[in-house]
Description:
13 strands; elongated; Rossmann fold; 41% helix; 2 domains; alpha/beta; six-stranded mixed beta sheet; single chain; 10 helices; disordered N terminus
Amino acid sequence: MHRVAGSILICVLAFLTGCGSSGHAGERYYLVATNIKIPYWQTAAAGLAKSASEMQVKAEMTGPDTYDPKAEVEEFRRVLASKPSGIMVSPADPELLRQPISDAIASGIPVITVDSDAPGSQRLIFVGTNNYQAGMTGGKLLAQKLKGKGNVVVLSIPAQSNLDERLRGYRDALVSSPGISILDVLDVHGSPEAAFDQTKQLLETGKTPVNAFVCLEALACKEVADVLERKNVHDKIVIAMDTDDATLSWIDKGVITATIAQRPYTMAYFGLKLVDDLQHHRPKPLNAHWDQILSSPIPALVDTGATLVDTGNIAQIRRLIESK
């Protein structure tokens, strides 16, 4: 059995009479993800809690507490068997979740994807970052910082659609800088330890000099920065993702050059409102591949935005995070 983290459960009691006074009696929604213990998903959990409180519904975030795509599929199927009112899911492996999403839609349960999409599935809406544009933003900064020349190593989780889109954005942004080469794309398997070990090994054994590191997910660049600091290396460009405390601290220290901040709080907060609306106002038929229909009553995607964070605006970003 795969170990699934203790669920983060939100139940709002309206005037001590249960969660039904708002017209949502008996409704329960789920957000299924993987690696839910990391700060990124804890921020999403806060957005989910706030939205559930305002709507007076039950909402639960659940999934494996490590990066485990197969365990995520098992958890999705467990949630589906409980006949929920709606499901949000962040697919670690879109192919593994394609059929489970179709099964949910076929049973009349609305499903939307958040953070990571499942292209080609029957999900109704994707809510998250425009990942291609996030990659383009990072790529333009990378070209600027390298002055058009250098070798880059990317840390990612290949086959996860949002990360692949970011990489595509980076590659396209670098087309106009032929002097910049992406030497390798390392698979960190969602593991900080793997990111640390691979970076350390690369610096110790690599014959080709590496001028920059790009991390396409939240965990890796903190480990890259740790390795660089331990080895007293201070001449590398490092572009990260997301804004947990450790990443921001490494920007303060000048080891991480910049990070691209997403909005997981917004994804979960607004995603719950969308999936609830789909529960009450279902497009018919539910399994119509609405993302391909020009007269669709629902959008194919909702871009929650992204922000480049560096030494120039990190103080403001910290204030905004602390005031939330």
